[in-house]
Amino acid sequence: MGAYMAREGLVPERAIVSSAARTRETWRLLSQAFANPPPATFDDRIYEAEPEEILAAIAEVPANVNKLLVVGHNPGFQDTASLLTGSGDKPSRALMAAKFPTAALAVIDFDCADWSALAPHTGRLDRFVTPRALASQPD
């Protein structure tokens, strides 16, 4: 997934990562794909969190950060992505709502100037990418 993100220009400026060992390892592997890995904050609040807790962590990100990556756990991340997404490709939205597998990536675009202004259904799903879909693509 990291190679895909780097190739597609989806390199974050900042990352919020659950403090769990598994997500720290995911971040370590993922960030190796970036020429200049962004700073990461390891946040206990997003371990097995509900959408409200995930959104609270996101709301603290400085407004000058345009690309944010959040690494955490389900079901909270699937619920949060579905809550925030109000538009975008309908088949991708349906896939994301049905199953958000380990290491999947939801790229959601917002028109707000501040992370604290995120509200339900204000995001547009740009893409939803799963490891299985990447594995089936030719190099």
Question: What is the structure about, briefly put?
Answer:
This protein is of the alpha/beta class. It has six helices and six strands, in the order αβαβαβαβαββα. The protein has helices at residues 2-7, 21-31, 51-59, 76-84, 90-98, 131-135; strands at residues 14-18, 40-43, 68-71, 85-88, 105-109, 123-129.
Structural description of this entry:
This protein has about 140 residues and is an alpha/beta fold. The chain has a single domain, classed as Rossmann fold (3-Layer(aba) Sandwich). The chain is about 35% helix and about 20% strand. It is built from six helices and six strands, in the order αβαβαβαβαββα. It has helices at about 1-5, 20-30, 50-60, 75-85, 90-100, 130-135, and strands spanning about 15-20, 40-45, 70, 85-90, 105-110, 125-130. The strands form two sheets. The chain has a three-stranded parallel sheet, covered by helices on one side. Helix 3 (about 50-60) crosses helix 4 (about 75-85). The radius of gyration is 14 Å and the shape is globular.
